[in-house]
Amino acid sequence: MSFANLAVGFFAAGGLYQLALTVLGNSYPTIKATAQSWAAFFSALSNLTIFSIASWITGFSGANSAKYIVIMNIFLSLLGSVLALIVKVCNKKG
Fold it and tell me: What is the pTM of this model?
């Protein structure tokens, strides 16, 4: 289970964040730093939110909390991947 946690966390978060920074830099070249700072701000806000949700899951489900947190992480990774694909398709059209 810990290897799966490591793999999902390593491959999901870093890659999607770098993709977002690249897309923002290419989409807004005149305000690249501002757009990327907003991305960093919302990344920090999402980290706070996710940790709060994970602590709520831990308090609510006790011994099964690790399983539910991994499921949440997989769901969020899949959602991020789908959104990244949508952005990629939209950038090819435009």
Answer: 0.66
